[in-house]
Write a structure and sequence with these properties.
Blueprint: H1 8-74, H2 76-83, H3 89-108, E1 114-121, E2 126-128, H4 139-144, E3 151-159, E4 162-172, E5 179-188, H5 190-197, E6 206-210, E7 216-218, H6 231-236, E8 242-249, E9 252-260, E10 267-273, H7 274-325, H8 340-386, H9 390-407, H10 410-426, E11 433-435, H11 436-453, E12 458-462, H12 465-468, E13 472-474, H13 479-490, E14 499-506, E15 511-517, H14 524-536, H15 549-553, H16 556-567, E16 572-579, E17 582-589
Domain HAMP: 308-360
Organism: Paenibacillus planticolens
Protein name: HAMP domain-containing protein
Length: 595
């Protein structure tokens, strides 16, 4: 499986996102949620206390009102009024005046919330602080109202534009314990309004009151007084004693806290918009978010700039290293950085300089070594050549030629002439560059002598005569290859030399010359070892098996090195084929137009 390479820059950005940005966002979200929950709980507790306080004040008010009216039940005038009949007109007039002047006016005085105070007897007689009997039609309904309580708070009714709260209190006969009459009190809501309005619940929050039947007793919006409570009231508030929940309507969320009075059975509801509770928190959150974003941006700029300079330096060093891998040792890195990157640059420059120096030294030593080897082998060759006096040799060959002509022996004449030409060409400088035509003529002379030895030898010259007159070659490089074919392809294996071929071919890199025989070739391992040596310019450790020292010195490796030394890569030898069918050795030489 391939390993995924991730750049340092990508790693830094990933680490920053996962270990700075994401934790900051998660922490901010948790902080906001926990803070909002805490504020809601605090608001619920606070509003519960407010609702309980309002309930307490209302209970005290109605208890005080109940205590105020309690003496009327036992008052003699009231008891006497309850026993009157409609026929007792004079007594009714007298007692009614006394009740109005002595009792009702005293109770109503100093209490502006009292709209009316009316006593209604079971006999159909009434006395009121208003002095009017226009409202007597509703008294009978109050008298017949089934109730186990003697003191009851009824709902809201409207008198013109004034909402009134009706309270009834039944009179009981002391002997029969039957209802003998009813006390009806109509209250203005100014006292209740004062009790409720003195409590502030936020900027737009408010309190409202509903009775046990779900009728709104009090609401800041007077148009809702006496109306039915909202639909959600019956499902979430009406049957509970207390609680709190969040109600959403028209995309507005309100926190509702309610508490039921055990005395009046009224439910006081506190309604506060959530946005008021969390406004400061939202403001703080926004400030925190913008501050966090600014901080993150600052960190990104600082860390990003630093990481960018670091990764740019490393990327540049990576490019320089890649260039050095490709063999360019003349590049240098800037050394003006003072941090670790600068140290890497300086180390890189030192490494490149040292590599360049070592390569120069190795190259120089290899050239010297090759020159020494070539000179040594050339010295050995010249030593062998110098063992025969050329002038003595030429004179002897001329005499042999003369006797052969006189005696009419043409083969001896031809061989002596060829041998003289062969030695005359061989004694010249072996490192001299000649035309390929001269080198091939020397080989042809050598093969003419071999033809005399082996009449059945087939010699095949397939070369382009127009090219060999211009192509360059190294003196005495082809004849040793042909001689190796005789010695190692045929004679070593006791085979008759039957074929020697020399072909040529032109390609884009130069001029290819091939020496072909049909003897037995070398082993595959030996051929591969020679080709590796030719390719890498390293001599094979095995040497050329079966060759004496003199022949080894002018063997394949010597030929290749002389060609390579004069013409350079990629010129030299390559063994194309060497097996039971024969051997093909290829020599690459410079093209016709090349030096």
């Amino acid at each position: 499986m391939n390993k995924i390479n991730i750049s340092i820059r990508t790693q830094l950005i990933t680490l920053f996102i996962f270990f700075v940005c994401i934790p900051l966002l998660v922490f901010g979200k948790l902080w906001y949620d926990k803070s909002t929950l805490f504020i809601e709980k605090s608001a619920i507790n606070f509003n519960e206390q407010i609702v309980k306080q309002v309930n307490g004040h209302l209970n005290d008010y109605f208890l005080e009102l109940e205590r105020t009216t309690f003496p009327l039940i036992l008052h003699p005038l009231i008891q006497e009024f309850m026993t009157l009949t409609p026929e007792q007109t004079f007594e009714r007039f007298m007692i009614t005046n006394k009740i109005q002047n002595e009792l009702l006016q005293q109770i109503v005085f100093g209490r502006p919330e009292m709209y009316s105070f009316t006593i209604f007897s079971k006999q159909g007689l009434s006395v009121s602080s208003l002095g009017s009997s226009m409202v007597e039609k509703r008294y009978q309904a109050y008298l017949d109202m089934p109730s186990s309580e003697n003191y009851s708070l009824l709902g809201i009714r409207w008198e013109g534009n004034t909402p009134l709260l009706t309270i009834i209190r039944k009179f009981k006969d002391a002997s029969t314990y039957q209802t003998s009459g009813v006390l009806i009190i109509d209250l203005r809501l100014n006292v209740i309004s004062e009790i409720v309005d003195q409590i502030e619940v936020g900027d737009t929050g408010f309190l409202w009151i509903a009775d046990a039947q779900g009728q709104m007793i009090y609401h800041p919006d007077k148009t809702k007084m006496g109306a039915k409570a909202p639909d959600w009231y019956s499902n979430q508030v009406k049957n509970l004693d207390k609680g709190a929940f969040i109600h959403s309507e028209h995309n507005v969320k309100d926190l509702l806290v309610f508490h039921k009075s055990s005395y009046t059975d009224w439910i006081i509801v506190s309604q506060v918009p959530i946005h008021e509770l969390t406004a400061e928190l939202i403001s703080l959150r926004n400030v925190t978010i913008w501050g966090g974003l600014a901080l993150v941006l600052l960190v990104i700029i600082i860390i990003g700039g630093f990481s960018l300079s670091l990764t740019n330096g490393l990327s540049k060093l990576k490019r320089l290293m890649r260039s050095a891998e490709n063999g360019n040792f003349f590049i240098t890195a800037p050394e003006h950085h003072g941090n670790e990157v600068g140290s890497l640059y300086r180390g890189f420059n030192k490494m490149v300089r040292e590599l360049r120096r070592l390569i120069d030294e190795v190259h120089t030593s290899q050239l010297r070594e090759k020159e020494l080897v070539i000179k040594q082998r050339e010295s050995m060759l010249k030593a062998l050549q110098s063992q025969i006096n050329p002038h003595f040799l030429y004179n002897t060959l001329e005499m042999i030629n003369s006797y052969a002509i006189v005696e009419g022996v043409a083969p001896i004449s031809r061989m002596s002439i060829a041998l003289a030409d062969l030695f005359r060409y061989s004694i010249n400088d072996s490192m001299k560059i000649v035309y390929l035509q001269d080198e091939l003529e020397h080989v042809r002379t050598y093969l003419d002598i071999q033809k005399e030895r082996f009449p059945y030898l087939d010699i095949d010259f397939d070369v382009d005569k127009s090219m060999i007159t211009h192509a360059k070659a190294v003196r005495l490089t082809i004849q040793p290859l042909v001689e190796n074919s005789f010695r190692h392809g045929y004679e070593k294996h006791r085979m008759k030399p039957v074929y020697i071929g020399i072909t040529s071919e032109r390609n884009e890199n130069g001029y290819l010359l091939r020496i072909i025989d049909k003897g037995r070739g070398m082993k595959r391992e030996t051929m591969d070892a020679y080709n590796d040596s030719f390719m890498n310019d390293t001599n094979t450790s095995s040497g050329e098996a079966g060759m004496d020292e003199a022949l080894t010195s002018i063997g394949l490796w010597n030929v290749h090195q002389r060609v390579r030394l004069l013409f350079g890569p990629p010129y030299g030898l390559q063994i194309i084929q060497s097996d039971e069918q024969g051997t093909v050795i290829q020599m690459m030489l410079p093209g016709v137009s090349e030096e």
